Amino acid sequence: MQFRNDPADVLARLDALRAADAPTSGGRLLSYVYDPGVAELAELAGAAALRAQSLNGLDPTTFPSIAAMERDLVELGRGVLAGGDPDVVGSVTSGGTESCMLAVKSARDTWRRRTGAEHRPTLLIGATAHAAFHKAAQHLDLRLEVLPVDPVTARLRPSDVAAALSPDVALVVASTPSYAHGALDPVEQIAELCAAQDVPLHVDGCIGGWVLPWWPGLTRRWDLTVPGVSSLSVDLHKYGYAPKGVSLLLYRDRDRHRAHWFATTSWPGYSVVNPTLLGSRSVMPIAAGWAVTQALGEEGFAALVAPMARATERIRGAIAGIVGLRVVGDPVGPLLAIATDESVSPERRVDPHRWSDAAGDDGWALQPQPRYTQSDGTVLPRTTHLTITPVTERVVDDLIAALQKAADRTRGVPGADAPADLVAAAAQIDPADLTSEVSAAVLGLAGLDPKAGLTGPQADVLALVEALPAPVGERLLIEFLARFLEP
Ligand SMILES: Cc1ncc(COP(=O)(O)O)c(C=O)c1O
User: What are φ and ψ of residue 284, in 5° steps?
Assistant: First the structure.
């Protein structure tokens, strides 16, 4: 075959493109990636994925290897997260967002079937639930009720859930833990309340569900062994160390599981029966996730949690020793949110976004998170997020030194504020007027060039996100990324 470009050159070009990416291994990027620091695991995952490259997950009866791998994964999840309960069933999905969306679809359709009601049911979440539930409510047309969380612990309060429960609630969500703050919601108490009113409870363990089973000293119960928990999501492409594209969604009840499926015979083609949102789907991440779980077993995952827990402890201790910063709440697991310590005088405070920008200058990529005002007026402060992984322990001394140095360089520097004239102008904008052209013009006024991407300091961008009305900020974000991706 005559190629237009030599395959070796194509790969060389890809390597050159990849050189501009944040480093996905080695521990300097503290979000997005989950590096076990074990080279053989990455090799195994890659080799397994290659073996599944030509498969189509659309039909596991034609390719029974897919069914075999999915059975193994669900059985493992059942063993780790449901006490081995043989009535716990589930699906392998493409990721956390898909697992969360399918859990919501199942709840919506079950609610409709049971009530026969025509109106939209409610999805009840805490302010710290992952954004995937906002997406689910939007795409699946549920009414979203967002409860404020305790502003000190960032945990959902059972009393608030109790007050909000009603026959219209199709699903309640608890996070184990939440992405932003690593806060573990009180699942046992919430589950008891939900069970008493026969409302299902989804436990979102997408990020923490494959860590908490082995986290040292954790005695609070939070998984499918808790009566009243009806479904649970856990991503193998996070702390299951698989490449992106694999998550587990487990249910206690077969009918609730079946309620997220889709089937149709009402067209002239092959009978369609899909356990997930996609039709044809890649089996590569499933095979990779399966191979990693087979190789590691529960003992292997436990062994990888230990260095992560030690590194988390070290970093928490180090933050406690940095004047002007504090860890938010009492996180459980390897996720931390760092905020300004308001108890010290202003000249000793450290703004978390100036701090993460300064750490960025030294080659450490931390993730800034915006200030968020809850529906009761309480404020979750601006923070910087750290996702700690097994490899972090190997670089923890350097990381701590960089965090201390970044704090020393930014202590007393006020946080960024969005330009007042821009904020005033944005307040007048009707989001419906934000066409692509108008949005691009507003981005230009804010000094943001989508073609340049988002390299360099982010404090100003975050300040803008905080200050703009959410519908305006959201539309501008879409415009920014769409234009960044445009050829
Ligand atoms: C708690 C939680 N739920 C859901 C998600 C969404 O997962 P994904 O990015 O795989 O779609 C995440 C992602 O970080 C998460 O932390």
Answer: -60, -50
